[in-house]
Amino acid sequence: MKKEEMLKDFARCYFENGKNGSKAYRDTYGRGKHLKDSTCSANASRLLKNAKVQEYLSELNKKAESPLILTKQQRMIWLSRVVNTPIGKVDEKSDLCQSHSVTESEFGTTVKITMPNKLSAIAELNKMDGAYEPEKIEVKSELSFSSLLKSLPSDPLVRGTEES
Q1: How many structural domains does the chain have?
Q2: CATH assignment of the domain containing 47
Q3: Which is nearest to 23 in space by CA: 3, 37, 9, 33?
Q4: What is the DSSP letter of 108?
Q5: Which of helix, strand or coil describes residue 113?
Q6: Phi/psi of residue 105, each to 5°?
Q7: Is residue 144, in this structure, part of any structural domain at all?
Q8: Could you tell me if 42 and 95 lie in one domain?
Q9: Would you say residue 111 lies in a domain?
Q10: N or C: which terminal CB in the chain sees fewer CB atoms within 10 Å?
């Protein structure tokens, strides 16, 4: 990735992580590496003084100030309304209505309204709050590193070193 793209990525991560510079640095530059917190903090501080990063952050702030963009709080309120609003209280004009259909039959008119899934809304709220702990993955191997080394030939052929 080019330097300018990395700076943009850092600015985006910083903005999306609630202005946590260390986390933004680790997410951008530390993928697959173990970085000390002090290193991340110092480098993030240095990057936040970079004119290009400041420019990108300014652009992101302008976009976020658009009245069309929901803030985190607005999204959480909407998701909470999904959970707390009974389906009978939602009509076709509600922002909680995902679909609406009217069917005429010999028995009368049937109105069907679908709203977002309540369990999915709860799950999304939990993610936004950080309520979930990272999944732990346990890896077991029947081979140890030393047994793998012992299985290698003791005198491997080396290519490209033959004398003419």
Answers
A1: 2
A2: 1.10.10
A3: 37
A4: E
A5: strand
A6: -145, 180
A7: no
A8: no
A9: yes
A10: C
Q: What is the dihedral of CA 92, 78, 87, 100, to 10 degrees?
A: 30
**Domain, as residue range, for 103:** 72-128
The pTM assigned to this predicted structure is 0.43
pLDDT in tens, 87-135: 889 998 999 999 989 999 999 999 899 999 999 999 999 888 877 777 7
Q: Could you tell me whether strands 99-105 and 108-114 are parallel, antiparallel, or unpaired per DSSP bridges? A: antiparallel
Is residue 23 in some structural domain?
yes
Distance CA 25, CA 45 (A): 9
Residues 6 or more apart in contact with residue 139 via CB below 8 angstroms: none
